[in-house]
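Field notebook, page 271. I keep forgetting to write these up properly, so this time I am using the form the group agreed on. The chain and the ligand, farnesyl diphosphate, are recorded exactly as supplied. Prediction of the bound pose follows.
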Amino acid sequence: MILLACTSLNYATAHPSQDKLTLEHNMPPTQLPNHIAMIMDGNGRWAKKRMLPRYAGHQAGLKTVRMVVEQCSTRGIKALTLFAFSSENWSRPYQEVNQIMSLFFQALRGEQRRLQKNRVRLRIIGDKSAFSPNLVQRISETERITASNDGLLLQIAANYGGRWDIVQAARTMAQQVQAGQLDPATISEANFATNLATLDCPDPDLLIRTGGEQRISNFLLWQLAYAELYFTEVLWPDFDEMALVDALNAFASRQRRFGKTGDQVQSANNP
Ligand code: FPP
């Protein structure tokens, strides 16, 4: 009995939202973020705690990817952007880089049926020029197959860096100016944003980072300008439905002011 009580106490501490699952399911869509970005951190530590190779952590992380895609799809979230591999991750041991790349390669094919079933549209954002021709081909194939799906837009950031993204957008526009197709006086935040890797996707409303670190790590630097930031100690492979609900509840409790005063926002919400 005592053991049972302790177990449920620990469970409640780890998941403050366990009683709120039903509540969350009934949450009005206006309180849900349209676009969630996630920094999936903690795979290596998850594996180390279990005396497993780091690769086992990445494999377990893929299961969490499946869960968040499914959850976001069924909850009516419009877009989900996952940071799978940063421009800086190439400096990891050669074997680990290879393992992440092959996991990515296999997942693109292995997940196709599930993506179709959930009507998910896949987009890979990042500098693909560093990928093997096989991987580039599989990316194009999966993007093409899912292109007409009308559900969740799933953006996987692979060999992605926020500074790279801004530079490549600036380069594209500079080339348009040089070719006489663009008047520099017409460059705006809005048309600059359409040249970013995220194209027409609205900016994230919520950034979730697992694994306890509290930084952006060169992810979506431009796009995160007004995102609500949510950091959790939970390691990515342990990030489950209830941990997601905690993040969604935290988001719902925030007041987004976009530079206005709190009173202005309140009176706009309750005219
Ligand atoms: C960060 O944890 C995780 C990564 C660099 C890889 C993420 C890959 C996956 C979740 C699996 C494949 C994903 C897709 C989309 C196919 P870390 O290794 O830095 O963890 P640590 O900080 O504990 O060392």
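OBSERVATIONS:
- The pocket of farnesyl diphosphate is lined by residues 40-45, 58, 61-62, 65, 82, 84-85, 89, 100, 103-104, 107, 156, 211, 236 (CB under 6 Å).
- The domain at 32-166+203-251 is CATH 3.40.1180.10 (Undecaprenyl pyrophosphate synthetase).
FOLLOW-UP: compare against the apo run.
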